[in-house]
Amino acid sequence: MAPERKRSAFLSYSQGGVCKMCHIFLLLWLLHFSSVYSDITDGNAEHLKREHSLIKPYQGVGTSSSSQWDFWGSTLVTSQYVRLTPDERSKQGSIWNTVPCYLKDWEMHVQFKVHGSGKKNLHGDGIAIWYTKERLHPGPVFGNQDHFVGLAIFVDTFRNDLHGMDRSFPYISAMVSNGSFAYDHGKDGRSTELGGCSAEIRNKDHDTYLAIRYSKGRLTIMVDVDDRNEWKECIDIGGVRLPTGYYFGASAATGDLSDNHDIISMKMYQLMVEHTPEEDSQDWTKIEPSVSLLKSPKDNIDDPTGNFRSTPLTGWKVFLLLLCALLGIVVCAVVGAVVFQKRQERNKRFY
Ligand SMILES: *[C@@H]1O[C@H](CO)[C@@H](O)[C@H](O)[C@H]1NC(C)=O
Ligand SMILES: [Ca+2]
């Protein structure tokens, strides 16, 4: 059996690719304010929620009436994978959790596999992961209805928009809708997307994963598709409002071009996050899906959810930054001086 996979996308993500200076900064920050930002460690306290998880060998799925997953269309359930569509034209399939999710903070890990005989660019259309008000409503958006209410993550493997050559495909993107927005296939959803990234996910021999994290109004999508057992950030955006009580699902579609679209597992983890009494007293099922900041997550600075990476810099933070910068400059100056001196000495020897 394979070793247990790192569960926390958040922790493994935050450990990777951070510069030394930032480490010092982070350390200082944690030392001083660990009490205030206790939710920063919530990746530790997560729990797998079986009723929202789809795990091999998918016992009872589709056959037992007590099953927590329903499927529709071309979906085929084996003991090793759930195939939403086969590598054939004009197929649509989906699988839906029958249990509404009342968790306020969660992280969904999806292991998926897209593969087929189509050569480069001759395959499609992709997979969508859903957290929506309604379930099992087939339609034109990767096998699900348009004008959906909730969250969608698209793994779009076919470029429809020939003007959008600034991005390579497959392309992963996210969309939140209150039902009034249509998904524009012709533009690969560009007009409604919250963010996205390109990811080589097709015909891989290794496992490919996607993580969707929703906590305190922050939506984070991470991918692990390079066989490195490491999460890479794809989307990170604040100001996202999603209610509880919606359903998780996955769907896929083929058109003139096709692929096998397989879901291997969907694992739902509850994140243990504290909320203010005010937030707790609210009826979370009544929230309307919305995004307050429709702009690139990278300049998403006035984030109301309290994530330190994107809050505006206040006095002492500026001070710490300056301190780090100053330290950096001093280190550079010293190193520079030493190197310069060495050179001078060498030069003297030569002439
Ligand atoms: C959905 O959101 C849009 C933009 O925020 C708003 O104009 C519209 O009235 C909302 N529609 C519904 C059905 O609530
Ligand atoms: Ca497309």
Can you give keywords for this protein?
7-stranded antiparallel sheet, 351 residues, 4 helices, binds calcium ion, alpha+beta, 8-stranded antiparallel sheet, binds 2-acetamido-2-deoxy-beta-D-glucopyranose, Jelly Rolls
CATH architectural group: Sandwich
Radius of gyration: 23 Å
Q: How many helices?
A: 4
Estimated helix fraction: 10-25%
What's the overall average pLDDT, rounded? 84
What is the CATH domain class?
A: Mainly Beta
What gross morphology would you assign?
A: globular
Secondary-structure element sequence? HHEEEEEEEEEEEEEEEEHEH
The termini sit apart by 67 Å
- Distinct small molecules bound, one entry per kind: 2-acetamido-2-deoxy-beta-D-glucopyranose, calcium ion
Describe the main β-sheet briefly.
8 strands, antiparallel
The figure for the number of domains is 1
The helix-and-strand class reads: alpha+beta
Number of strands: 17
Instruction: Extract low-pLDDT stretches.
Output: 11-18, 30-45, 296-312
**% residues in beta strands:** 25-35%
What name does the CATH topology carry? Jelly Rolls
